[in-house]
Amino acid sequence: MKNNNSTTSDTSSGTLTMRDADSLLARLIRKIVQGPKGWLDLARAASSKFVRVDQVQAAPIRARKPVVQPARKPVVQPARKPAVQKSRPKPNLAPFHLYIPFAQNAELDAQDFAADVYVAHGVQAIPAADAMAIACGGRVICDCIEIPSFAQRVLPSNWSRINTRFIDRTVEGYLRHCDSLITVGWELGKELETYGRPVHVIPNYRYAEELQPSNRLREKCGIGPDTPLVLAISNITSGLEAVLEGISGISQPVHLAVMGHLKPAAYREKCEMLVQELGLEGRVHFFDPVPYDELTSTASAADVGLIVRDPVIPNNFVSLPNRIFDYLFSALPIVTPDIPDIARIVREENAGVVIEGIGAGGWRKGILQALEYSAEMKRNALAASRKYVWESLEDQLFEALGRPKSVTFVGYTDLNKNNRTMRMAASLRKMGVTANVYTSFDAEMRRTG
């Protein structure tokens, strides 16, 4: 009878049961105690429980058929087109490629132009004036003839935006380090006060003169003395379209003479086309500028003078152009947009009309009003011209420059053709001050001989 609670061993099968394992473990312990002889007996007994490896018949090994891999077609890679390198434009260094060499040359030439004061004509000349002052000593004063920021000028430059921001930030730093600033108008003077330097206003008054009326302009236009003639002096960059439309709406045969340049060339073409569209071909006349000493005499033949400027443009809003005084000295009533400095003079002197808005209707109404009161306004304009004379500013200029013994005017452009600079230099020389002019043209002549 079998005991269900026992674990049996089957020696015939060659398997080792749990009971066998326990028995072998017990015997192992006894034999270990008996020493080497006991180990040998134990090994013999254990070997009888297992099938010998050499008695196991190995299964036959079947030879495998070789696996033939199908031939792979070579993968043809498409030829790569050479990468096209995008051509980058050459770095645009304008205007630094002009103003920095000018300043470097100014430093080299400083000893020959040493002075108590260096007056930079416009912000672009400050680096050169500053270089001279560092080399030889002296004070730097900037004559800010327009708003310092190039980004807010009337005609946008073709410089990159980066360059424009760069030079505006550079100019701001130079202005804050100037000893003082002078400028052409009171409204611009307010803007310049933000740089924290003393500001002196020296407007562009003309030398005192007796008006010599002439009929030359009417002769050029081919009109008689009774035909209304409106004059626009100076370079015009915008706003003339509204003037032309305003004149086309006047029933009287009013003529317009433009004495100056329309810039850029595309703008002139646009205005010329508008003249044709409005049917004003025989009533609008374009002329080149006349010499400065002939300006008032030539302009006096007109009935009204226009200030064609858009006050929305920051540089225009703070302007006080030469033309306001040219018109007064020509005895012309002035029609102008509401530009603060110009409007103040026109109203105070009752020498013209400040229009409301700069549309065609505003210009038409302003021109008609000026023509209606032309005789009175002409008298007022001529009377005002005796007040706004350059001679009245000479002492003020001398004080603004700090009562110097010597002054060098520094400008990138040819200052010998600049009326404002030449008036200043002449006035200072009359007071016994040594006044010299240094420009990029002088620097170039010294380099090339």
Automatic annotation (TrEMBL):
Residues 69-88 are annotated as: Disordered. SUPFAM superfamilies: UDP-Glycosyltransferase/glycogen phosphorylase. Keywords: Transferase. This is Glycosyltransferase. The keyword Disulfide bond does not apply. GO terms for molecular function: glycosyltransferase activity. It holds the Pfam family Glyco_trans_1_4.
